[in-house]
Design a protein that fits this description.
Blueprint (H helix, E strand, L loop, with lengths): L6 H13 L1 H8 L3 E5 L2 E6 L2 H22 L6 E6 L74 H12 L8 E5 L5 H15 L5 E5 H13 L3 H9 L3 E5 L8 H16 L3 E6 L11 H7 L3 E5 L4 H14 L6 H10 L4 H17 L6 H7 L1 H10 L2 H11 L14 H17 L4 H7 L5 H17 L1 H15 L1
Parallel strand pairs: 2-3, 4-7, 4-8, 5-6, 6-7
Antiparallel strand pairs: 1-2
Helix pairs in contact: 1-2, 1-3, 4-5, 6-7, 10-11, 10-12, 15-16, 16-18, 17-18, 18-19
Bound molecules: adenosine-5'-triphosphate (ATP).
The site of adenosine-5'-triphosphate has 16 residues, from helix 5 and helix 12.
Protein name: Chromosomal replication initiator protein DnaA
Subcellular location: Cytoplasm
Organism: Chitinilyticum piscinae
């Protein structure tokens, strides 16, 4: 192995050349590295840096370190440095004029790092970022419109989000974003927060997970500090609450949120909410909240189709400085269908496998890296599983899947189950007909076409189908 004392200097020289001066100065220069027992310990100034470096630059750091060490790189350990290392990155330049809602293909944009929301810069208060769980109150600088891949699954939601970011408080209020797990709701709403902050660094923005809001209510209750609680929340310009379904069964929280909602909307302040389902399907939410949540605009995010999954993989790999062949991307996208988070996880696995075995990212490497996940996935989807899942979802009985009953509340779920079986299994149409009470293959074909058509025209059915797909694939 080469002399490690020069390793970091070599990395710095190479990274400066490969990343360019501006990225280098913002993200790499503030890092301080030292060798500890053969491990390259890289100290970063804060959590945001840590995440950004890990997600965006670690691959390249490892690569240049490996080059210096003739393919035998030391372990690299990132951590938030105990010692002050360097000033935080400068704020990105303010846009000269507001860009119009961007139609540019996301892949062409160069995501610029952005600092966390303005709330973070203010002195810590009991209900602000200084609390023990301040992590979740921060906006992730990587969740921007530029890093969000757009496709049929999210184009309406994205357009609405962009409009809200351009004119907060003036249009859709609240904006309610719903969809299954890991489909990009948090990414989208934080992109709004980041853009609002970029336009107006003075805006008081708070992103919060619903569970954290519940905790804040409990804290206010315990400390008898509701005045302070209200003062803080009611002073916000933009409030983003993630996973609002966590309010179910929390009456005091719902009451507080009702007053907060009214105060903010009346004051022309913007509210953005996310949930795994539309407001009226959230059982256990007070009616006055359900109706208010539907005041503005509710937009769905559906599971992405194959091409969009491929585009997401390509973009994520590129951000990690890897070039992904399209056959590898298609392989991953075709096999990991449950949600984008899983897709990202699979990509990370493939990249790590290639990195640690010093192999190029070939189809064979991808198959090897994902073999456990794929084996687990293949075992799960059976027609019986589909029939049970769909029957439970629509609250009908499994035998109704086989029966001749034609009532719509039974026939429609049965058609949905047939379409899902066609999509998720290798079964032929006659075999599917057989599994659904000995029906003819033309009945199955008709069911598949009907559901396909309805998914185009009936957003509720499209959403239900998406949720079922996710449930069955995860
Ligand atoms: N269209 C997309 N383009 C790029 N990345 C995406 C897209 N959709 C989702 N992701 C990525 O997938 C991951 C999961 O997304 P996110 O956390 O926003 O999902 P979510 O819907 O909020 O999930 P949950 O329901 O668990 O809260 C994130 O890393 C996000 O960046």
């Amino acid at each position: 192995m080469s002399d490690l004392s020069f390793l970091w200097q070599h990395c710095l020289n190479e990274l400066e050349q490969r990343l360019g001066a501006s990225q280098f100065n913002i993200w790499i220069k503030p890092l301080v590295a030292e060798l500890v027992d053969g491990t390259l310990q890289v100290n970063v100034p804060n959590q945001i840096f840590l995440q950004f470096i890990r997600d965006r630059h670690l691959g390249m750091i490892e690569m240049v370190a490996a080059e210096y060490c003739n393919g035998e790189p030391p372990m690299i350990n990132l951590r938030v440095g105990a010692k002050p290392v360097a000033p935080p990155p400068p704020a990105p330049p303010k846009p000269k004029a507001r860009p119009a809602a961007s139609d540019a293909p996301a892949a062409e944009a160069d995501p610029q790092p952005q600092p966390a929301a303005s709330a973070e810069k203010k002195p810590a208060r009991r209900f602000e970022a200084g609390s023990s769980s301040h992590e979740i109150s921060r906006l992730n600088p990587l969740f921007t419109f530029e890093t969000l891949v757009t496709g049929k699954a999210n184009q309406v939601a994205r357009a609405a989000a962009q409009q809200v970011a351009e004119n907060p408080g003036a249009g859709y209020n609240p904006l309610f974003v719903y969809g299954g797990v890991g489909l990009g709701k948090t990414h989208l709403v934080q992109a709004i927060g980041n853009l609002v902050h970029q336009y107006n660094p003075q805006a008081r923005i708070r992103y919060i997970h619903a569970e954290k809001y519940v905790q804040d209510v409990v804290k206010a209750y315990q400390h008898k500090s509701f005045d302070e609680f209200k003062k803080y929340y009611h002073s916000l310009d933009l409030l983003l609450v993630d996973d609002i379904q966590f309010f179910v069964g929390k009456d005091r929280t719902q009451e507080e949120f009702f007053y907060l909602f009214n105060a903010l909307v009346e004051g022309g302040k913007q509210i953005i909410l996310t949930s795994d389902r539309i407001p009226r399907e959230i059982e256990g939410l007070q009616e006055r909240l359900t109706s208010r949540f539907s005041w503005g605009l509710s937009v769905a995010i559906e599971p992405p189709e194959t091409e969009m999954r491929v585009a997401i993989l390509m973009k994520k790999a590129e951000a990690d400085h890897f070039k992904l062949d399209s056959n590898v991307a298609f392989f991953i996208a075709k096999n990991i269908r449950s949600n984008v988070r899983e897709l990202e996880g699979a990509l990370k696995r493939v990249l790590a496998y290639a990195r640690f075995t010093h192999q190029p990212i070939t189809l064979e490497a991808a198959k090897e890296a994902l073999k456990d996940i794929l084996a687990a996935g293949n075992r799960l989807v059976s027609v019986e599983n589909i029939q049970k899942t769909v029957a439970d979802f629509y609250k009908i009985k499994v035998p109704d899947m086989h029966s001749k009953k034609r009532a719509r509340d039974i026939a429609r779920p049965r058609q949905v189950a047939m379409a899902l079986t066609k999509e998720l299994t290798q079964m032929s149409l006659p075999a599917i007909g057989e599994a659904f009470g000995g029906r003819d293959h033309t009945t199955v074909l008709y069911a598949c076409r009907t559901i396909e058509e309805m998914r185009q025209n009936d957003s509720e059915l499209a959403h239900q189908y998406g949720v079922l797909l996710q449930m069955l694939r995860s």
